[in-house]
Specification:
Blueprint lengths: L36 H7 L21
Length: about 60
């Protein structure tokens, strides 16, 4: 009898657990953000999210 190999862990949102992911998002003139679907699903967002301004980390789109 051969040993069964465990299946590779897959997610329904496409992001790998434990790995960093970075995407460029669009900000409209009305200050609306377009959240990528895989981030939205991975974070389990509904109709609200908390944004925190720490006063330090800012990365302009040219650095993404």
């Amino acid at each position: 009898m051969s040993a069964l190999m465990p299946k590779k862990r897959t997610t329904t949102h496409g992001l790998d657990p434990g790995k960093k992911a970075k995407r460029r998002v669009r900000v409209s003139q009305q200050r609306q953000l377009s959240i990528p679907k895989d981030f939205y699903l991975a974070l389990g967002l509904n109709d609200e999210a908390v944004m925190e301004f720490t006063g330090k980390d800012y990365h302009p789109a040219s650095n993404v």
